[in-house]
TrEMBL record:
Biological process according to GO: fatty acid beta-oxidation using acyl-CoA dehydrogenase
Source species, domain of life: Bacteria
Family stated for the protein in its record: Belongs to the acyl-CoA dehydrogenase family.
Record's keyword annotation contains Flavoprotein: yes
UniProt-recorded name of the protein: Acyl-CoA dehydrogenase fadE12
Lineage of producing organism: Bacteria, Bacillati, Actinomycetota, Actinomycetes, Mycobacteriales
One GO CC term on file: cytoplasm
Gene source species: Mycolicibacterium elephantis DSM 44368
The entry's keywords: FAD, Flavoprotein, Oxidoreductase
């Protein structure tokens, strides 16, 4: 895409994803979440139709398109009320990192499954004592012959219970200096010494979060992704896609909330006209719509820059898009609840369920404050406080 107008192919893709997602929708999503089940049917169908791997190379079973197309898939699924977090993790972060930096064997082993959804790969960087400061992570890999032995702890790891493998961001010791440097490892979820416990969240989601423990997990040498010296570049390769997908999810959720509210206020009547005629309701909804459209434009810019290979430009736009979409979707969900009055808080109307979920876009994958730090320092050249 070189202009603001999507190609016919991209428009077709939007329609196809929206049509598939509409067959599931929010009722299905919440039903599964409340029953403690996963949305396996939706995941499998999205994989079969080529949506999950749309950004991955064709030679490994992907669609050969880019982050633009993957973000569009995410947005449309979220707009139907069924945003899947594992879309951010499996094809966007992990698929991208392996496709760009993996060895031929790693690509052959993991990418076709990630692309068709038969393999889900979780992603683990966050640690209890490091949080937003990922320079402080302490999960460490040491050599034992040609094997690696990995030990540490991770927190808030989405969907590891559904995953066949998890990409762990750890550290290794530099032979020469003794300093620790980042390194990425693919760990099969049935590896000995890997375990997890569920974190009870007040989030109605079919995908759960886990505390993960690595207790001397022995891995073969080819568990290390690409080269030991390229981990920082590898990590950065996954960050822009993650933020673009975070933005896409929030844009979709904002659209979902606005649609629900608009449908409701068009017909609900308690005075002479439908309540949607009152500017106390119509103006905030119009404002929400503008804010979501603006966030979407930045998301599209970020994806277009990323796909064109401009990583620095994409980083600024992806951070801004994630911020803008998070803020806009929180406000859209809040206004949707208000527009529905008492029904805004019922189970039946399904909008209250989005209140906590909408806050996620302010916290993960990178918090609102850390985006503001990035923009203050990188775009504005201001000094750091931390
Ligand atoms: C539902 C969910 C799913 C997740 N999935 C994954 C996953 O799959 N894999 C994974 O690795 N992680 C995952 N995360 C973790 C997520 O990325 C972190 O929660 C997030 O990065 C924030 O880290 P933290 O929770 O440790 O907060 P902290 O770093 O403790 O931050 C707490 C608050 O302090 C603020 N703060 C911190 N430092 C600064 C500063 N320098 N300036 C200003 N403010 C600051 C933050 O913005 C935030 O508001 C998930 C989280 C959630 C909630």
């Amino acid at each position: 895409m070189s202009s603001f107008i999507e190609t016919e192919e991209q428009q077709e893709l939007r329609k196809a994803v929206a049509a598939m997602a509409a067959n599931y929708g929010q009722d299905y999503y919440l039903e599964k979440a409340r029953a403690g089940q996963h949305t396996t049917e939706l995941w499998q169908e999205a994989g079969k139709l080529g949506f999950i791997g749309v950004n991955l190379p064709t030679e490994y079973g992907g669609g050969g398109a880019g982050m633009y197309e993957l973000s569009l898939v995410m947005e449309e699924m979220a707009a139907a009320g069924s945003a899947l977090l594992m879309m951010v993790v499996s094809p966007a972060i992990n698929g991208t990192i392996i496709a760009k930096f993996g060895t031929d064997d790693q690509k052959k082993r993991w990418l076709p499954g990630i692309a068709d959804g038969s393999i889900t790969m979780a992603f683990a960087i966050t640690e209890p004592d490091a949080g937003s400061n990922s320079h402080r992570i302490t999960t460490t890999a040491r050599r034992d012959g040609s094997d690696w032995i990995l030990s540490g702890q991770k927190v808030f790891i989405s969907g590891i219970d559904q995953a066949q493998a998890v990409l762990i961001v750890g550290r290794t010791e530099d032979h020469k200096t003794g300093n620790l440097k980042p390194a990425l490892f693919i760990v099969p979820t049935d590896a000995k010494g890997l375990s997890w416990t569920k974190i009870e969240m007040e989030l109605i989601s079919p995908e759960s979060q886990f505390q993960v423990f690595l207790d001397d997990v022995r891995l073969p040498s080819d568990a290390l992704v690409g080269s030991e010296d390229a981990a920082i570049a590898q990590l950065f390769a996954g960050l822009n896609p993650e933020r673009i997908m975070g933005a896409a999810s929030a844009v979709g959720m904002g659209r979902f909330a606005i649609t629900k509210a608009v449908d409701y206020v068009k017909t609900r009547q308690v005075w002479k006209t439908p309540i949607g005629a009152h500017q106390g309701l119509s103006h905030p909804l119009a404002q929400n719509h503008i804010e979501i459209e603006l966030a979407k434009l930045m998301m599209q810019k970020a994806a277009a820059l990323y796909d064109s290979g401009d990583d620095a430009g994409a980083a600024e736009a992806a951070n801004m898009a994630k911020y803008a979409a998070g803020e806009a979707s929180v406000r859209a969900v809040d206004q949707a609840v208000q527009s529905l009055g008492g029904n805004g808080l019922t189970k039946e109307y399904g909008i209250a369920a989005a209140v906590t979920a909408s806050k996620l876009a302010r916290i993960a994958p990178v918090s609102r404050e850390m985006v503001l730090n990035f923009v203050a320092q990188t775009s504005l050249g201001l000094p750091r406080s931390y």
